[in-house]
Design goal:
Oligomer: single chain
Structural class: mainly beta
Strand content: over 45%
Helix content: under 10%
Distance between the termini: 7 Å
Largest sheet: 4 strands, antiparallel
Radius of gyration: 12 Å
Length: 101
């Protein structure tokens, strides 16, 4: 595993999600009640920017066509058979690291 620094933990407030480039990949980094989760930043439907979506609890809604994903697993909220990649996350001090390998 190769963890890469993605953000300072203060940059992603509780209840928010943001779009980042980590190791050359688009990543959506969410803060769910103080726990950081990272999934692919590209919607499985048509590549919409999940990091620009609305986060409610642990579900992000793609701003393009409304597909919803669980940010803890990457799975489509309505079907566990579909989804996007979910990445391991570590908090080290004030920094959030993501492994996109």
């Amino acid at each position: 595993m190769a963890f890469v620094r993605a953000a300072n933990k203060d940059e992603v407030k509780i209840g928010t999600i943001c779009e980042l480039q980590v190791g050359g990949k688009a990543v959506a980094l969410a803060n769910v009640a103080g726990k950081f989760c990272a999934i692919s930043g590209l919607c499985a439907h048509q590549g919409g920017p999940l990091g620009e979506g609305e986060l409610e609890g642990q579900v992000v809604t793609c701003p393009w066509h409304g597909w919803q994903f669980d940010v803890t697993t990457g799975k489509v909220a309505q079907s566990t058979n579909m989804g996007v990649d979910a990445y391991p996350v570590e908090v080290r001090g004030d920094d959030v690291y993501v492994d996109v390998d």
